[in-house]
């Protein structure tokens, strides 16, 4: 008989000791390694492409190969412009429903042996196995024992490589190919863990968008230099024309502002705002996918263009009204929203003026 002592109260523990508002909103965070294991084929393909972009700092060139004629090459990192004729690394990225096993790699090893023997490429400096489910213990042990890995490759050649390397010809491990394999340095075969892949991915502009967690802290914007740069010439010319319209005189350069204190202070504020927007542009380049900042500029443009094209007493009033309107554009649909300041929205108006998308002195005024 079951006694009362066998029965325990239902007492769930608090999540990691305590719950938070974030848990209530989105649930328990799923570790990135676990999320990768549930990627669809398309998501895995996209993820590895994104991750491969992090390798560009390690190599002269990084290229992706695929299809039935990949010759055992998936992602190649070249150390020189010699490509496959020089030193290079190979990354073989597999998506399976299980951790990578020895039986999954014999044909891949066979391809590297065979095609390097054929002269399609020199043997890679390193050949890294990567798998969406990680590297299994049995394979990891083999990869750390090159001599045993070579012996097992020979042992499994007929089963996996004889008819598996290419569908057009049977490849027997005899003669020159056997000699090539015997001389081949099997220490080139190794692996990259999912933790290492995620670490590399975290250095790309795709990481925050794919995994969340927010953007890194944004550096302070650069202080505008005393003398404007060439990059500022167009929006500053537009400002001078707008100020001149307000003052009823032609302003040839910024030194003409020295006798107009209020206008000079406004000019200095507009330059600060431009540099805020430029710093956000640079921040976006390093943290979010290409086109994200352009999308923000477009959103600001559409939020202010009607105000800009309204009738205004002077070009100065037009600029002031447009910049004020930019402050009210939320931009909540943009991935940069958590890093945007009011000065950025205002400064984007001057970036748009730099490109003549916003005009303070329309010709029909």
TrEMBL record:
Ranges for domain ABC-three component systems C-terminal: 232-360
Name assigned to this protein: ABC-three component systems C-terminal domain-containing protein
Species of provenance: Advenella kashmirensis W13003
